[in-house]
Amino acid sequence: MNNNFKMLAKTLYGFEDLLAKELLQLGAMDIEKGVRNVSFVGDKGFMYKANMALRTAIKILKPIKSFKIRSEQDLYDRVKEIQWEDYLKSNGSLAVDATINSSVFTNSLYTALKTKDAIVDRFRERTGERPNVDLKFPDIKINVHIDRENCNISLDTSGDSLHKRGYKTATNIAPINEVLAAGMIMLSGWDGQSDFMDPMCGSGTILAEAAMIACNIPPNLMRKEFAFERWQDWDVELFEKIEDSLLSKTRDFHHKIFGFDKAPSAVAKAKENIKNAHLDDFVTIKHEDFFKTQKAGDNKLHMVFNPPYGERLENLNVSDFYGQIGTTLKHGYPNSDVWLITSNLEALKHVGLRPSRKIQLYNAKLEAKFVKYVMYEGSKKAKKQ
């Protein structure tokens, strides 16, 4: 009996290839890349595995119905036809969210409300009871996606965004999203075969994601709950079996991961988050001003960081600050591959180094560039000879 079904993993712009590769390595079938999403096929166990193990996914949706609509009444009627009793008890709870790109439907909250009305009315007419709305802990979370006349109704298998890994209790100004951090490390090509550094580590997100990548630790083991745990067909034994299987694939790591921050409060928060993630055996954090440091030893160093942009730190002289980044790298960090992300494209000009790669990403809604600088041992000319 074929128990496979189609799913859709949502991601950030620029991470579609990474996510498709992750899905392939996990064993997904029929993988197809979209914009900010990748669709695939798997069974219930694979749905559990995808939520636990994917580093670059924000949500995993399970589509249950697609149809054409031309009016609000169409939406109501078609949603009401779905056999919601297969997914929800009449005295259960639900939440609906909607994303829309349509001339007919212009308000996502109203669209969500219309969907909820159709579901509630179906139950009331059939059973005399009605499910309640619970935005925090619903039994099922429903996603409505309308693109012009096409409407897709899906169950949200994840619940809270998968970037909420569960290890981060302490944050500082403008912390980087965990999915963005993991994707940047993967795009940078780091494979755990050299030392890793974040010289401006903030709340430690990049360091935590790097340690989990190095040790092949599933990123979402620390989460308190996934949405599918409230479903009628929740299989705790299967979930634990998948979890054990993922944990059996962790690996040893023989290099160093370390971070600096010049703010004592950031260092304290980063240490707390790393401890929460049970990664303190792999990660060292020090109270240091990066501009007063230099590389220890001759070994290859891989650096990924998210320097201040100016949007998040007032009184920052951006040109001086980025100039100091370039100077410190040039004089203090030979034999290093350095990647940084910034949404201040003007600031990059002040680094004074020629990037060998530039990748467009988004940090929240800010358009950003993820750039690579290769710091050679001695001069570049000598390296080529």
Query: Which spans have pLDDT < 50 for at least 5 consecutive residues?
Result: 381-385
Shape: elongated
Secondary-structure element order, as H and E?
Answer: EHEEHEHEHEEEHEHHEHEEHEHEEH
Estimate the helix proportion, in percent. Answer: 25-40%
Cα end-to-end separation = 63 Å
Label the CATH architecture of the largest domain.
Answer: 3-Layer(aba) Sandwich
Largest sheet: 8 strands, mixed
Task: Please give the order of strands in the largest beta sheet.
Answer: 2-3-1-4-8-7-5-6
Query: Going by CATH, what is the homologous superfamily of the largest domain?
Result: Vaccinia Virus protein VP39
Strand pairing plus helix content: what structural class? alpha/beta
CATH domain class name of the largest domain: Alpha Beta
How big is the Rg? 23 Å
Kindly estimate the percentage of residues that lie in beta strands according to DSSP: 15-25%
Number of domain modules: 2
Nearest-integer average pLDDT: 93
CATH topology of the largest domain: Rossmann fold
Walkthrough of the structure:
Helix 5 crosses helix 6. Strand 12, helix 9 and strand 13 form a beta-alpha-beta unit. The C terminus is likely disordered. This protein has an eight-stranded mixed sheet. The chain has a seven-stranded mixed sheet with strand order 11-10-9-12-13-15-14. The chain is elongated. It has two domains: 152 residues, VC0802-like; 207 residues, Vaccinia Virus protein VP39 (Rossmann fold, 3-Layer(aba) Sandwich), CATH 3.40.50.150. By secondary structure, it is of the alpha/beta class.
